Amino acid sequence: PTMAHSQALLVLENFIGGKFVPCSSYVDSYNPSTGDVYCRVPDSGKEEVEAAVKAAKDAFPIWSSKSPLERSQILNKLADLIEHDLEAFAQAESKDQGKTITFARTVDIPRAVHNFRFFASSILHHVTECTEMPSMDCMHYTLRAPVGVAGLISPWNLPLYLLTWKIAPAIACGNTVVAKPSEMTSVTAWMMCKLLEKAGVPPGVVNVVFGTGAKAGEALVCHPEVPLISFTGSTLTAQRITERSAPHCKRLSLELGGKNPAIIFDDADLSQCIPTTVRSSFANQGEICLCTSRIFVQRGIYSEFLKRFVAEAKKWKTGNPSDPTVDVGALISKEHLEKVRNYVKKAQAEGARVLCGEGVDPLALPPGNQKGYFMLPTVITEVKDESCCMQEEIFGPVTCVVAFDTEEEVIKRANGVKYGLAATVWSSNVGRVHRVAHRLQSGLVWTNCWLVRDLNLPFGGMKASGIGREGAKDSYEFFTEVKTITIKH
Ligand code: NAD
């Protein structure tokens, strides 16, 4: 890879105990839209994690004894500061991740701001339980207290969005944290650290240790004084984390991959369904855990759907992420692009048909982006349910479209994967959408829409898509320890 000669490299530092500290070694971070190394990320290990956990432990007594209102005010201030710098954060996220500037401006950074505001508000509204037992002259009540130092590990697809979805509830509840963002997308977390002091977050409450999963991530997971780990990432890494944390009986929240179906019945409103399903397949280059990658269309509308869907997908413009008219940016890395392309090749080798995108349509890129990791939105059909493209998470701009006949059949096929994160159902028959939603093995079911979220309600997956839920009440329960107290009077 060539270095960006015109600019000095951006060098990140860990944030421990309220101070930026350099690291003895670094890993390179690439700009996915040019292929250049533009940033160096600390390659932290045991030593750095140890220092961060110590700082978090030292900060815990004071932070946990603050009132929820005091913590809420600090979270709101931090939200305001990020919002004030929204454009700078959006630019950084787009450059670091390859996502379009439009997506970073309208989804990633606004949601990061909202995460802090949401938990700043929700932390004020929890109540605990009380029961009476007159025959024993007793009453019982519950108390909830923060757990201690929370380890937070996040992926590269929605960097600040997903990291703040963990930091906000963790510190709102009174925990202190050691966070490890993905080594491929660390810049916005580092930028956020620069705002913590001004927001009034005391030193040691939020520590960020940058580095790889194998070194920094494992050191955090194996640290005996980090009793809970909140992880978002792949199912494979979650298995490793579960094993490594087992000797310590850690509390785990695992938000993992998906192979999300869209089920489109013949009475669906296609004028809504088609643009939304194109978006659910290709938004953020298909690098969202909730993206649709298996589209089941009822036989009677199959050919019309396919024609209109492909036409709509072809309208999506792929190119320089900083161009506000571009819909599809670069994929995260060269290796990931290769992996996604290989899925398309495998499908073709199995006899499937690629209707548009990879290998079928020309990809014209601006001169500065020739070495970037780009791929066109790709639609595959005539693919068997057993094919790896219909079973495994691809996590790129690739979606498969197949036909079905009956409700019973499609539920079985939709459930026929190891994952169970999100599903969408399109129909104008109210009875049917309820029926199907009940029977889908999926933590989230959207009917006649996609990605409409109320953060109050539980988010998370079934089967290999995860363990635990996040949301107002769910995150509160995860990040606190409950105690039942009995009083005899
Ligand atoms: P990943 O599992 O490779 O990495 C996620 C994080 O874990 C990174 O910070 C990484 O450095 C760290 N890590 C890797 N190995 C580790 C180890 N042995 N110990 C501790 N930490 C380790 O995932 P990714 O490729 O960054 O992200 C893509 C995956 O995330 C996809 O599978 C996607 O579906 C999933 N995802 C899920 C959700 C959800 O909410 N369910 C949201 C976004 C992404």
From TrEMBL:
EC number(s) per entry: 1.2.1.32
All residue ranges annotated as the Aldehyde dehydrogenase domain in the record: 25-485
Name of the featured protein: 2-aminomuconic semialdehyde dehydrogenase
PROSITE patterns found in the cross-reference section: ALDEHYDE_DEHYDR_CYS, ALDEHYDE_DEHYDR_GLU
Pathway(s) of this molecule: Amino-acid degradation; L-kynurenine degradation
Presence of keyword Cytoplasm: yes
Record Pfam families: Aldedh (PF00171)
Function: Catalyzes the NAD-dependent oxidation of 2-aminomuconic semialdehyde of the kynurenine metabolic pathway in L-tryptophan degradation.
Gene Ontology biological process terms in this record: retinoic acid metabolic process
InterPro entries: Ald_DH/histidinol_DH, Ald_DH_C, Ald_DH_CS_CYS, Ald_DH_CS_GLU, Ald_DH_N, Aldehyde_DH_dom
Family, similarity comment: Belongs to the aldehyde dehydrogenase family.
Recorded catalytic activity of this chain's protein: 2-aminomuconate 6-semialdehyde + NAD(+) + H2O = (2Z,4E)-2-aminomuconate + NADH + 2 H(+)
